[in-house]
Design a protein that fits this description.
The chain is of the alpha+beta class and 454 residues long. The chain has 12 helices and 17 strands. The strands form 3 sheets. Strands 7, 8, 9, 10, 11, 12, 15, 16 and 17 form a 9-stranded mixed β-sheet that branches. Strands 1, 2, 3, 4, 5 and 6 form a 6-stranded mixed β-sheet that branches. A two-stranded antiparallel sheet has the order 13-14.
């Protein structure tokens, strides 16, 4: 389907017409960083059309060599003080050109990253996912995915939340509103605006619902091919924050804000043939190919957890009885398992319940596809589905800490074969940087426990 016929998208010709009509004056051109965040530039529309659309724009290559606070850190081969922190190119993917309705007169385009010789920046998240999509295509297959992002809304602005040190914030709801239709309408003006403006930006929004933690909600978006889903996820996450800020709210996707329920990001994945035929289902059950694919995801899950749970805070979700998984198991419609088989017939798909709201969707989908390919290539046998409470199962466990996940990723033959040594080294360094930062920090917990009583 061309951009001319997709709601929310624009072709280059339509953009030119909109600029001439005075409807568009700004093009937001973005890439995705290691944390899954949008980074880039706001260009005048005329400059984009005249000088950028058919070629590229430059940006400092330190954007894939920084920590969460955008501080340049050591250990990355492609960017350092010794190499002078040069540029790489933002190459616009014109198939992603779409409206950005929460900013007047603005459109958005996602970019791939390339070096001066036009070779891809292999450690960039979008390229990592592209690589796995290409590997799947070599086997005649296409991945479709959907992500379910939860977030917590507060009646504090982002500036107020910052000034408070993100403590003592007022949640938008005061009690558990999971599936509730009573309290949630009080937040409906914000949620409705997010839903409608995401729809105008080309995302197929399905629904919104309350969740368990105070102020917690979820907005679900229709599945798509894996790269389009990751692009939509990144845009939605950024846009939801911007819309909340415009309305005087703040919201967080962090995996575990407090001791109550964390923010999950369940990722649904299915595989089809190039002509669109579902290959994972055999009636209401998994096909042999489907079994191999899920078996590979299951076998690789512990080794790939770094790409599913990339932050220190990610691991605080894995608490028994919390609806976040602790056992590496799969089951039919079983929310206590790490992998949950859902749907029927052509809609049969696997739901990965390990990722939290802080996940980088490109890396997570790349990890899931790589695991599935491992299962297909080796015709792995799938263990029987788990029935009952997987929290009590005698199964391998989801890693408890970022340090454990880093070590498993470092020793993973599957990751080396799927991603290459450069990608593995790059993201091990990212984990090391986060661990070093956390290990040197003094927490509120330590002050409360130690200030007077030790």
């Amino acid at each position: 389907m061309s951009n001319e016929t997709r709601r929310g998208y624009l072709s280059l010709a339509q953009l030119k017409s909109a600029v001439e009509a005075g409807e568009v004056d700004t093009v937001t051109m973005a890439m995705v960083d290691m944390q899954g965040r949008l980074q880039g530039k706001r260009l005048t529309a005329e400059h984009f059309l005249n000088d950028i659309a058919d070629v590229h724009a430059e940006g400092c290559n330190y954007q894939l060599a920084v920590d969460v606070e955008m501080t340049p850190v050591p250990g990355y081969r492609h960017a350092s003080w010794s190499t002078g922190y040069g540029d790489f190119s933002f190459v616009p993917d014109l198939s992603t050109l779409r409206w950005m309705p929460w900013h007047e007169g603005s459109v958005f385009v996602m970019s791939d990253l390339a070096w001066a010789d036009d070779s891809p920046v292999t450690v960039s998240p979008r390229q990592i996912l592209r690589q796995q999509i290409d590997r799947l295509a070599e086997r005649g297959l296409v991945a479709h995915a959907g992500t379910e992002l939860e977030f917590i809304v507060f009646r504090d602005s982002y500036e107020s939340a910052w000034d408070k040190g993100y403590n003592d914030l007022t949640p938008a709801t005061r009690y558990n509103v999971d599936y509730a239709l009573l309290d949630t309408p009080r937040l409906e003006p914000l949620l409705r605006r997010i839903r409608n403006e995401m729809r105008t930006a080309g995302l197929e929004v399905q629904d919104a619902k309350g969740e368990c933690n105070f102020g917690q909600h979820e907005i679900n978006i229709q599945y798509d091919e894996a790269l389009a889903t990751a692009d939509g996820h990144a845009l939605y996450k950024n846009g939801a924050k911007e819309i909340a800020a415009q309305e005087g709210y703040s919201l967080t996707f962090m995996a575990k804000y407090n001791e109550r329920e964390g923010n999950s990001c369940h990722i649904h994945l299915s595989v089809r043939s190039k002509d669109g035929k579902p290959i994972m289902a055999d009636g209401q059950a998994l096909s042999r190919q489907g079994e191999h694919f899920v078996a590979g995801m299951l076998e690789s899950l512990r080794e790939m957890t770094l790409f599913l749970a990339p932050n220190i805070n990610s691991y605080k979700r894995y608490v028994p009885g919390s609806f976040a998984p602790t056992a590496v198991s799969w089951g039919r419609d079983n929310r206590t398992c790490a992998l949950r088989l859902v749907g029927h017939g052509p809609s049969l798909r696997i739901e990965n319940r390990v990722p939290g709201g802080d996940v980088n969707p490109y890396l997570a989908l790349a990890a899931m596809i790589a695991g599935g390919i491992h299962g297909l290539d080796n015709e792995l046998e799938l263990e029987p589905a788990f029935d009952g409470n997987a929290y009590e199962a005698d199964k391998p466990r989801v890693p408890d800490t970022l340090r454990d996940a880093r070590d498993l990723f470092a020793g993973s033959r599957i990751a080396q074969e799927a991603f290459g040594a450069d990608v593995v080294e790059h993201y091990l360094n990212m984990a090391n940087i986060e661990l070093q930062a956390f290990d040197s920090a003094i927490t509120d917990w330590e002050r409360v426990r130690c200030f007077e009583r030790m």
